[in-house]
Amino acid sequence: MTTDAEVARSIALEAAALLRNLCVAGNCAEADLGRRGDAEANALILDRLHAARPNDFILSEEAADNPERCAASRVWVVDPLDGTREFGERLDDWAVHIGLAVDGIPVAGAVALPATRQIFVTDDAPRTLPPLPARPRLVISRTRPHPIVRAVAEAIGADLMPMGSAGAKAMAVVEGRAEIYLHAGGQYEWDNCAPVAVALAAGFHASRIDGSPLVYNCRDPLLPDLLICRPEYAEVVLAATAEALASRDVVNGLGT
């Protein structure tokens, strides 16, 4: 029988190919390219998931929500095109997320980075990571850097790496090109379910920024913050985040 990770891998690769072909076609404007990418990748993913796992529910950024999923044990959490802005601008850092939550826990999934032809899956063999650098590298939003993230980076002496989609940021940590992905200020379950599943399977730390577990298939899919990092940095980052959250200046500067 095909495993859940194999299902995620196959569908993510097919959606990645669709998006890559659409992106290089060059026959539509930036705004229309993003709209078509979201819609066409979503249609493909829903079709393939319904065929492969007909009894499972699906929560997708680009589809109407079915509230019956809240009572289900198995729910696929999907972002057909994470980083629509980057895709529309034909940059490299956009992704496809296919994640599976079982009883709220992200247990399987795949994150494809179509522009660089990479895919990261929960059943991949563990990667050999480079030695820890003298200064950790922290990936940060290219367009909406959050005050808390900047405060934590300064507190722990981290170098900032601006980047696009959540999937690209998380996989930079999994791949060893960065050590920390800290996000505050707004995400939804589809933004991070698959990346968190992959990171946890690879032995990385993943949690909310207060250290509590990340829980999926909630009635409200808002999941506004997370930390994915090498385990060696978890304690110091969580401590610095708690201090930043307690700072009146930083809290007053919170954005979306």
UniProtKB/TrEMBL annotation:
Q: Show the GO MF annotations.
A: 3'(2'),5'-bisphosphate nucleotidase activity
Swiss-Prot/TrEMBL keywords: Hydrolase
Pfam families attached here?
A: Inositol_P
InterPro entries according to UniProt? CysQ/Inositol_MonoPase (IPR050725), Inositol_monophosphatase-like (IPR000760)
Q: Which residues form a coiled coil?
A: none
Query: Which positions carry the signal peptide feature in this UniProt record?
Result: none
For this protein, the record's CDD domains field holds: CysQ (cd01638)
* Entry annotated with the keyword DNA-binding: no
**EC identifiers of the protein:** 3.1.3.7
First-tier enzyme category under EC: hydrolase
Query: What protein am I looking at?
Result: 3'(2'),5'-bisphosphate nucleotidase CysQ
- The source organism is Sphingomonas oligophenolica
